[in-house]
Amino acid sequence: MNKKRIRVLLIDDEEEFANTLAERLELRGYDTKTAVSGEDGLNLMNGESFDIAVLDLMMPGMNGLDTLRRIKSQTPDLPVVLLTGHGSTKEGMEGMRLGAFDYLMKPLDIKDLTLKILSAVDASDGNEK
Amino acid sequence: MFKKCRIGVFLDRIYNSKKGAPEYYIVLRRIIITTMMVLTTLPLAMMIIVNHFQYRSHLRAELVSPIITMANKTKHSFELLLEARLSTVRFIATAYTYEELKDAHNIKRILSFLKNEFGGFVDLGLIGSDGILESYAGPYPLLGKNYAEQISFQETLIKGKYISNVFLGHRKFPHIVVAVQHLTDDGQTWILRATIDTDQFDNLIHSMGLESKSDAFLVDNQNVFQTNSKLYGNTLEKCPFEIPANRFDSHIVETKDPDGQNVLIASAGFRVANYTLVLVKPRSVVLQSWYALKTELFVVFAIGFTLILLTIIQITNSLVKRLRESDEKREKVMDELQHSQKLSSIGRLAAGVAHEINNPLAIINEKAGLINDLLDYSEAFKNQAKFRLLIASVLQSVDRCRTITHRLLGFAKRIDLKIEPMETNIVVKEVLGFLEREALYRKIDVRLKLFEELNTINSDKGQIQQVLLNLLTNAFAAVEDGGVIRIRTENFRVSGVRITVSDDGSGIPEDIIQHIFDPFFSTKKEKGTGLGLSISYGIIDKLGGTISVSSKVGQGSDFVITLPKTPEHSPEDEHEQEAH
Q1: Which of B192, B308, B321, B328 has the CB geometry, 3.0–4.6 Å to B93, for a possible disulfide?
Q2: In percent, how much of chain B has pLDDT > 70?
Q3: Which residues of B512-547 are buried (b: 16+ CB within 10 A; e: fewer)?
Q4: Which GO terms describe its cellular component (chain A) (predicted)?
């Protein structure tokens, strides 16, 4: 595991959810920033760099898939883990096609999320090297 | 028109009232059979009845006229015979003088001549104008007998000739008397009287050649037999029939004889004497050919009726059977339609509810999770263990809710289909891409055997993805780490596709396989997609395909999906659809 703390960008329109999850990730040693919309997230990405993005697919305004496309066009190497409350696999599948690393259903298990984050960061580190 | 309407309403009422009930079809069958029977046999019966009466009157005329002819002919023969006898006697009276006839020798010679030449003459006598028998040739000692008081004598004097009714003479043998009056030029009058036996009558009747059941005889105007009747009595007995006297034309009546038998009586009165010829024929004999025809008519009717009845019953049975089948089919389709509509609305509702609940649920999950985290990181305090238990309980409940909302969302997925051309192999690869990472972690060997020239089918890509994902998720759950999962695609029938997903996992026990496609049947706590096999089944069914499973415990399971060229039952796909 990296000595460096992993920097996570959490994009979710549900502020309560995002803040609480961010706090939990902080407790587990992740540097976490939250954004409540796609635009917000993209703005944050302009200011600093992240190791991974955790993106909710169901958002008002710019939706998850659009945000994913933008992220992938800006920083193709940034791994993205998708979250969705939607029971459909369709968006998930579409997200995967657009280059997301993996896909999780809300409500989620924090252990699943940390596992995915770690493997995604591992994978992208491997790619970089 | 009005009646027709009423029948229509009636049929409609019974058709719609108890539809589906077995009695309904019995009643319907009865009504159809009755209506058809009435419509077909009524004209037949009417025709036969009309024919019956027409033939009867026609045949009757045909059959009766020969009888009258025969009666007339025979009557004529009788009249000729009597006229001949009368002429003979008159001739003798004219040819011989009173003196010549008075000579006993002469009269005997004349009688013997008559006997030889004509036959039937019994005696011959000469009666004077005072009624005294003056000369006689014959077997009886009648000479000198006075006839003045007898009807025969008086009537001869008035009419000039006389033919008597039959009487029994001294020998108890039936006779008739023939007498003629002769007037000489000088005003003298005398009568020549001859007795004739009636053998000739019997001969004439015999010559009619009647069959055994028929009879012919003579009666006088007092209805007394003048000849022997074969069936109804002997000479001089009373005739049992009422024969109208003094009718010279032939006519025919129908009556009953003393035995109660129906008979036809033809009678013809004589002009030369008070006789009537009577011809009696049983009706059954006369109308024999009519009865034969009647029997034939009846047989034809009976055969026709039976054939019609059998045909109608046969046709009606198959008709009602078809009707019943199509009713049942229609009802089934209606049920399915209703069911899917119900599912559809339930699905939309479920999706809405699940959606709305899922977000707060995620928040609860995170908040509770955070409390748990904080408990982990904080120092021991009072009731810390209790807090832990409470939070665990909250998280457990969230988990349960998650399962439910995911199921509801999955359920809602069955609603609307989006049919488009689909490359099945690509869909399989996409779904696999989704699970690639898990396969990698768990070192599961996914072996693909995709047929390259696979048919392009029209189906709902998203739905097929869900089903495949579901099957693969199940397969992943079934196999151990390092297990093998095989996916095979091939062409199915003419233009369909078959997808087989096999695993070498734990297999499915027999008792579970039976319920595996039942809704909400689960052997494991579903945490993943929430798509049960029942939903997969519903999707595939809706897309016109089939899904089946075979499994052996300990050896693994095979799930087989077949999909048609197109889900709709369009005519060009009929052939394929039949296969399902």
Answers
A1: B192
A2: 88
A3: eeeebbeeeeeeeebeebbbbbbbbbbbbbbbbbbb
A4: cytosol; protein-DNA complex
